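From the pipeline queue, job 12 of 40. The input is one protein chain; the requested action is below.

Action: predict structure.
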Amino acid sequence: MSKSLALSTGILSIGLLSTPLALADDAKASVDAILDSIVVPESTAEPIVVAPTPEKDMDIAPSDTSDTELPNPLKTEVEFGYQSHTGNSDSRSLNARLNGEYTTGRHRTSGEWKYYNLYKDGEEDKRQSTYSAQSDYKLSPKTYLYGSFKGVDSRYSAYFKDYTVSSGLGYQFSNTEEFVLEVEVGPGFRYQEPNLDELDDDDIIFPEIVEEAIFRGNVNTSWQVLKNLQLKADVTLVSGHSNLKFDTELEAINDITDNIALKIAHSRQYHDKVPNGLSKEDSVLSINLLFQF
């Protein structure tokens, strides 16, 4: 009897002890299942985006941040002016100009032809043709390489022919739609032929033909004062062993329409060495119609 009681007591004790352990195992399994069901999203580090450094402006054309439309690379201008005086004086003058410029990326190429003719009292008093060509290539945001040619065929002045070739460096101090300022310096070569046909032999003090190395400097600027008013200035110095030449051109352009403008221009040419009896400077003031395409 006592053995049976002891055995029953032991079995009961084992049952009581095993019940909490079973409950603990079930609870642990439930907790593990809950933890396994929880999905923790993996942290994905956002890639660091470094903004690209703005490229330096390598276009040789004036920049305009307010206009996203690409400008026409080709620009042409046609200019014409005529004056006639009768009465106490009889004179008439004609001046014309053609200009073209092509700009794309770092390259800029331009060409120009000018013509001026003046008659007084039925006789030709002045006739001059000027033609020029230049090509530029931008080396850095401010500097560019240039090559230029300028020729002048003129009667009744110091030189009948005056040709200049030059190459060097240019620097753009400002290059915007509102204001442009460019300076060019470089060596070159020139050919000058005295005007023997229109002057007496006694008046010629330098009958020889000039062929020499020269230094050329140029300053070109334009200022858009108002939406329809632009001021321009171009100054060129050519210096050699025999003589010095200084050209100045001042312009005021008032737009009438998108393609037609009124232009007032003053050009001046100065030679420090001319034949006797001739002035060292020639100047022309003109009022023309300008057609832009």
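Job complete. The chain has one domain: 74-292.
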